[in-house]
Amino acid sequence: MKDALKGAILQRDKTTYAIVPRTPAGIMTPDQLESIAHVARRYEVPVLKITSGQRMALVGLAEQDVSRAWDDLRMEVGEATGLCVHYVQACPGTAVCRLGLRDSLGLGLELEQLYVGRELPAKVKMGVSGCPMCCGESWVRDIGFLGKKNGWTMIVGGSSAGRPRIGDLLAEGLDREQAVELAGRFLDYYAEQAPKRHRTAKFLEKHGIEAVKEALL
């Protein structure tokens, strides 16, 4: 891909592109929403789509408009194709939800700041849920956190892809600092042990959760 088209995803028509601004944990400001609307109107973007990763995709940009659209947006590029941590999705948690038991937005934003963009053997997606209702899809993410009364439960190796997999429970009763630290150590272990392009689901199927626990706990 040309340098000018960095952050652009070629569409099935082979002529237009999608771009996905970074919106940590799905949080956006009024100014960012106005920028997206401005770009969509200016460049006649035919489709605006909220993605499963809680981001806004602008789909159908002409090649010559991609760089100018990014300049007008004044937002960071959301990782969408690289072998790295792509995003952290999070439910509202205790910030607003009456069912929330833990601050999922706070944890999600901290994980996003620390780990998104980190290069790894394959793409990694994270989900943070503030209660066992699991609105952050924690059980089907490469790394998931689930809020309970006694702390955070950490889940690894989940996938909602073509071969879906419920993740494995790695640890329970974690405070926020422990959750962030264990996520980092799991990423270190995965980076050292996994072959290139092996998602965490395939990695866990091969190595087993007990081997991961023995290495990390």
From TrEMBL:
The keyword Heme applies. This is Nitrite/Sulfite reductase ferredoxin-like half domain-containing protein. Keywords: 4Fe-4S, Heme, Iron, Iron-sulfur, Metal-binding, Oxidoreductase. The keyword Oxidoreductase applies. SUPFAM superfamilies: Nitrite and sulphite reductase 4Fe-4S domain-like, Nitrite/Sulfite reductase N-terminal domain-like. It comes from the Bacteria. Residues 10-74 form the Nitrite/Sulfite reductase ferredoxin-like domain. Gene3D superfamilies: Sulfite Reductase Hemoprotein, domain 1 (3.30.413.10), Sulfite Reductase Hemoprotein,Domain 2 (3.90.480.10).
